[in-house]
Write a structure and sequence with these properties.
CATH class of the largest domain: Mainly Alpha
Strand content: 5-15%
Strand order of the largest sheet: 1-2-3
Structural class: mainly alpha
Length: 396
């Protein structure tokens, strides 16, 4: 026997001056009788068709949750919590499960959202009353008042959607008000790579300038490691005999256990690095030397910028990843091997990455493309057309 009756619309007889709502019933665990619950259809929708479309979305979501085991009685105490209390709850959960830098991002967004609520006298609004229109108002405020760019707008929307998804999972609410927020168009970011002169400059000067920084640069170029991952690596993660760098879930960006190959050219570079330390020592701490305390990735960026400014290199150190990937393709490394080294989840992802990086034909096209200047020339024995006969015929 079902403990619920599915959601339906009460349209007030089609009267748009009255409030429409969606209602459903659930069997009370105390009385064993069905009790009605309701959710308002936004009154800001001024047309009958618009309200019916909105009600349909609410009905579909409520019925889906009811069939998935949602219990409104377990949810009742929290539904009357304020939006402020709900956001504070979300941030506390994020604090316990996220890395410090990620939590810092979430905390700043949460503060911005709470400030906006306070400015609009909504800090005591019930969590269930916060709907799509309020969510869109916050995003419009972020764009027009705070002046954030489109990409930041999209990230902000994505994180807010994640916050409210957490509330749905813990049965504070049933519908995510940020679900329908549309992404804004974003220009494709430029992927910058080092020139041959840049690489020659680095190879000539960086080892003597700061060998530890040089090793960091090589780990990005050869192994495609991210700066934050490099700063979390420990001595035990470098398996030189097996020519592997182990990247445990506590280190990798996606929190998955992974390994990358140490190419032959990188082996002598790593052998010169002093790794005669306990396995639990970080390889790069403050000043990029071995130590017991993890340092922020900004340390590496700061040391690199000082070197790059001194030697006239404008690119940031992470551009070495794009450079290494492009040069690997030029040297004939197959796409599957490159996918594994980049730690991409699919070949398609690797192809998209390379398409963005390498939007030019290979040197073979430049060297072998037919020469129009040779069309009317011949040698002592025969005329050698620069184009196939069919094209020669059309030219004539």
């Amino acid at each position: 026997m079902d403990n619920f009756k599915t959601a339906k619309l009460n349209d007030a007889g089609g009267d748009l001056t009255k409030r429409w709502f969606v209602y459903y019933s659930f069997r009370s665990p105390e009385t064993e009788k069905f009790q009605r619950f309701q959710q308002w259809v936004p009154q800001k929708i001024l047309t009958s068709s618009g309200r019916r479309a909105s009600a349909h979305e609410i009905i579909v979501r409520i019925n889906k949750q009811l069939r998935s085991g949602f219990n409104p009685f377990a949810h009742m105490e929290r539904r009357y919590s304020t939006i402020t209390a709900a956001m504070e709850f979300v941030l506390e959960i994020k604090r316990t499960i996220c890395r410090k830098r990620s939590y810092h991002t979430y905390k700043n967004l949460g503060k911005s959202f709470l400030d906006w609520l306070k400015k609009n006298n909504r800090e005591n609004m019930h969590i269930e009353d916060f709907n799509y229109y309020h969510a869109q108002e916050f995003m419009d405020y972020s764009k027009s008042v705070l002046g954030i760019c489109n990409s930041t707008y999209n990230y902000r929307s994505m994180h807010m959607k994640t916050f409210f998804a957490l509330l749905i999972k813990r049965e504070w609410i049933m519908i995510n008000p940020f679900e329908k927020i549309e992404r804004l168009p974003v220009e494709e970011p430029e992927i910058v790579s080092f020139t041959v002169d840049d690489l020659t400059n680095m190879q000539k000067n960086l080892p003597g300038y700061d060998y530890n920084l040089y090793v960091c640069a090589c780990l990005i170029f050869y192994c495609f490691l991210r700066p934050q991952e490099i700063m979390r690596l420990k001595v035990e993660h470098f398996q030189l005999n097996s020519r592997l760098v182990v990247i445990p879930g506590t280190v990798s960006k996606n929190k998955k256990h992974e390994v990358v190959q140490i190419p032959n050219a990188l082996v002598p570079v790593l052998k010169k690095l002093d790794l005669n330390y306990p396995g639990d020592y970080f390889v790069f701490t403050r000043h990029l030397v071995r130590g017991i305390k993890e340092a922020a990735p900004t340390r590496m960026a700061g040391y690199w910028r000082k070197f790059a400014n001194e030697y006239g290199i404008k690119k940031n150190i992470y551009s070495l990843k794009h450079t290494g990937a492009g040069m690997a393709i030029e040297n004939g490394i197959n796409l599957r091997d490159l996918q594994l080294q980049l730690r991409h989840w699919s070949l398609e992802m690797t192809q998209v990455y390379l398409d963005k990086f390498k939007r030019r034909p290979s040197e073979k096209l430049a060297n072998d493309f037919p020469d129009l200047g040779q069309l009317g020339r011949n040698n002592e024995h025969e005329v050698k057309p620069a184009l196939p006969p069919i094209y020669m015929h059309s030219l004539s």
